[in-house]
Amino acid sequence: MSEAAPRLAFGIGPDGTYTRLGQTIAFVLGLLTMFAFLPLLFVAALLYARAEERFPNDPERARTLVTWSWISIVVPVAVAAVAAVIVAVVTA
């Protein structure tokens, strides 16, 4: 019975480093998160740093940490975008 290849975390290559697309998206979302909610930017950075340390020994846990890192920078951007739309609609 053949074993399925492990799934990769978004934006992360098989060796645990960012892909070029992942780097670009993380940079842009990081900048937007910095404006929307600065503390979550630090949380995302810490989660990814811990994931880098764990990739050689525990890749499944590392992928989970990377996923939470992405969530930490996507959620504030999404919330800020929704808030901007609400403000635009209310003030129009």
Provide keyphrases for this structure.
73% helix; mainly alpha; 92 residues; single chain
Structure description:
It is a single chain. The longest helix has 33 residues, at 59-91. This protein is an all-alpha fold. It has three helices and no strands. The protein has helices at 20-36, 38-54, 59-91. Helix 1 crosses helix 3 (59-91). It starts with 19 loop residues before the first helix and ends with a helix. It is elongated and about 55 Å long.
Q: Please tell me what the overall shape is.
A: elongated
The helix/strand order is: HHH
Average pLDDT works out at: 83
Whole-number radius of gyration?
16 Å
The number of helical elements comes to 3
- Number-wise, the strands total 0
Largest sheet: none
- The span between the termini is 62 Å
Helix content: over 70%
Uncertain runs: none
β-strand percent reads: under 5%
Structural class: mainly alpha
Produce a short descriptive summary:
This protein has 92 residues and is mostly helical.
Spell out the blueprint of helices and strands.
Layout lengths: L19 H17 L1 H17 L4 H33 L1
Helix pairs in contact: 1-2, 1-3, 2-3
